């Protein structure tokens, strides 16, 4: 094979969307099960877990939380919101990147609920914050068996709380280790429009090189 064709193969590999060696989804962070306490969630109260990603792109598939009835007068259902933040230079949640919410029944203590997440792509070697909040004072995010453990290149950083909504200020909580399990899959993000333009331009140049190479050989013969 001609050496000048190798860049074409590299581009083709870059455009691939499957990565061998990983299951369809796998653990990123987890400390479920085992309940050892509660953190109340309501209205403006947010509690956030910060973590750092491995050296490859990943996509969040599901997030499992341990949720509990905080008071006996809690409503039968609660809206629980999950918010993904970037992390600032101070290590605290900064800008909102994405969010999702679900209405779930809270019928007892120490229950787990799994949220399906769509389109949350995490960049390599990047810190993020996952914040949990609710629309009423009757729900709590219970604590698991110690702080979350990072798997497959993910690492746990710490927890922060805000009593004034998503804009903070974010402070260090008195308790850590709220029950969570994050499952992700390995992905290659679809190139942006400008990236496609660059790829097409490179392919056009390589095509001209191939044509020039073949033409040179025919003239030499």
Could you characterize what this model shows?
The protein has helices at 6-14, 193-220, and strands at 26-30, 38-41, 46-52, 58-69, 77-87, 93-105, 111-116, 121-122, 127-134, 139-142, 149-150, 155-162, 180-186. With 221 residues, it is an alpha+beta fold. It has two domains: 3-11 and 193-220; 25-186, Sandwich (Jelly Rolls). It is elongated, with a radius of gyration of 23 Å.
Name given to the CATH homologous superfamily of the largest domain: PHR domain
Overall 3D geometry?
elongated
Give the mean pLDDT: 78
CATH class of the largest domain: Mainly Beta
Share of residues in helices: 10-25%
Q: Give the percentage of residues in beta strands.
A: 35-45%
CATH fold-type name of the largest domain: Jelly Rolls
Give Rg in angstroms: 23 Å
- By DSSP (H or I, 4+ residues per run), the number of helices equals 2
Could you tell me how far the N terminus lies from the C terminus, measured between alpha carbons in angstroms? 20 Å
In N-to-C order, the SSE pattern is: HEEEEEEEEEEEEEH
CATH architecture of the largest domain: Sandwich
Main β sheet profile = 8 strands, antiparallel
* Total number of domains: 2
Task: Output the structural class.
Answer: alpha+beta
Uncertain segments of ≥5 residues (pLDDT<50)? 12-22
């Amino acid at each position: 094979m001609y050496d000048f064709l190798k860049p074409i193969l590299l581009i083709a590999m870059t455009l691939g969307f499957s990565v061998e060696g990983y299951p369809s989804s796998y653990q990123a962070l987890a400390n479920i099960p085992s309940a050892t306490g509660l953190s109340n969630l309501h209205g403006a109260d947010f509690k956030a877990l910060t973590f750092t990603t491995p050296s490859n792109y990943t996509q969040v598939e599901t997030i499992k939380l341990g949720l509990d009835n905080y008071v006996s007068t809690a409503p039968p259902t609660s809206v629980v919101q999950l918010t993904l933040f970037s992390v600032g230079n101070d290590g605290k949640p900064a800008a909102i990147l994405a969010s999702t919410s679900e209405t779930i029944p809270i019928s007892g203590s120490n229950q787990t609920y799994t949220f399906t997440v769509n389109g949350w792509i995490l960049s390599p070697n990047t810190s993020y914050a996952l914040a949990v909040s609710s629309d009423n004072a009757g729900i709590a995010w219970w604590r698991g068996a110690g702080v979350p453990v990072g798997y497959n290149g993910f690492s746990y950083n710490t927890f922060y709380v805000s009593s004034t909504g998503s804009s903070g200020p974010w402070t260090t909580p008195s308790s850590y280790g709220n029950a969570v399990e994050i499952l992700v899959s390995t992905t290659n993000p679809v190139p942006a429009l400008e990236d496609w333009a660059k790829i097409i331009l490179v392919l056009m140049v390589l095509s001209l090189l191939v044509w020039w190479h073949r033409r040179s050989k025919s003239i030499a013969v």
